[in-house]
UniProtKB/TrEMBL annotation:
Keywords: Isomerase. Residues 10-21 have a biased composition (Polar residues). The keyword Isomerase applies. GO terms for biological process: fatty acid beta-oxidation. This is Enoyl-CoA hydratase/isomerase family protein. It comes from Gordonia jinghuaiqii. CDD domains: crotonase-like (cd06558). SUPFAM superfamilies: ClpP/crotonase (SSF52096).
Amino acid sequence: MTSEPIDPGTATSESADTESPTVITTVVDGVARLTLNNPRRKNAISLSMAAAIDEFCDLVAHDPSIGAVVVDAAGQYFCSGADTHDLATSSSDPASPEAVSRTSAVYGAFVRVGSLPVPTISVVVGGAVGAGLNLAMATDVLVTTPDSVLDSGFLARSIHPGGGHLSLLGRAVGWSTTIAMAACGQHLTGTEAVARGLAYAAVPVDELPALVDGLTGPAARDPELTRRIMTSARLELGPPAVSWSSALEIERGVQMWSMSRKGKQAWSSRGPQQ
């Protein structure tokens, strides 16, 4: 198995060692991986990291051989949110064009991740706070460890949530838990996040690679089909979701395409052969 580095994933930030990329990206066997690599600052998202994430998303969107994406982080903590250096600078005049541009760049990075045409899996170890939680929630599948902490975090910093944080929380956990986290300062452990529907699974850290491989492997084996499934899922589930009758019509033509691609000879008298 070989790993091919992706050139756009080598941006560095002023707050990190300039000899080391703060975002590392690779593609292996149809699985693209984006690794936040600024552990000294708990992988806080700087402007250069946001730019690298955006470029990574461009590559995934335009490379039909990629069937799945993994978003993880170096070190013992997934992401502590936006870089506080940038937040401090923006707070001096938050309505200025420069401040709006800085904030939009960070938010735009995880919006891009959430719009990719393939399944995206975030691997949260240690914790995710604020914009870091937004990034994790922007992915299609969040996996974590039982003791990781998923925290809204905005209230503790005395700022209003941003980046569609309330919407992302609400579609995952509903009104009550959203308010408990965003307005009442509560957090969820990985185990609690699974129980509330925010995470797909919470397993010990040494079991995460096998879990991720089990999710990405089938998706990456047939990228074309996977991308079409994802398109239908986004159309049907939204938000907003469509009616069952509309879902039937969305799926009809794509299923016909997949059947014609498979062909009659691929079916035996005992049923479909995978």
